[in-house]
Amino acid sequence: MASDADRDPLHHTQKMQARLQDTIDHLREDIGKVDEPKFKAMFETAAEVLGGLKKAFSDYEQKNEAAWR
């Protein structure tokens, strides 16, 4: 049986935001480790895309967008 926290959407959005941030941080750290422009561009792009997804979770929590109201 699911706990109260498991039923709360905010519990899940907050956990996912933390995981996304960890991945964003890892991508950006790796950019400095490799000296290859296409790699750097790919990892920076991936970090930006995940940042947008993280923002979508935040917008859901705060009901900032019409779709979440």
The helical percent reads: over 70%
Q: Could you give the count of β-strands?
A: 0
Category from helices, strands and their pairing: mainly alpha
Distance between the termini: 29 Å
Biggest sheet layout: none
User: Rg to the nearest angstrom?
Assistant: 15 Å
Order of helices and strands: HHH
Total domain count: 1
**Unreliable residue runs:** none
* Strand proportion: under 5%
Given the C-alpha coordinates, what overall shape results? elongated
Mean pLDDT over the full residue set: 93
Number of helices: 3
Description:
This protein has one domain. It contains three helices and no strands. The longest helix has 26 residues, at 37-62. Helix 2 (9-31) runs antiparallel to helix 3. With 69 residues, it is mainly alpha-helical. The two termini are 29 Å apart. It is elongated and about 50 Å long. 77% of the residues lie in helices and 0% in strands.
Short description:
The chain has 69 residues and is mostly helical. The protein has helices at residues 4-7, 9-31, 37-62.
Describe the protein's topology.
Blueprint: H1 4-7, H2 9-31, H3 37-62
Helix pairs in contact: 2-3
Features:
mainly alpha, 77% helix
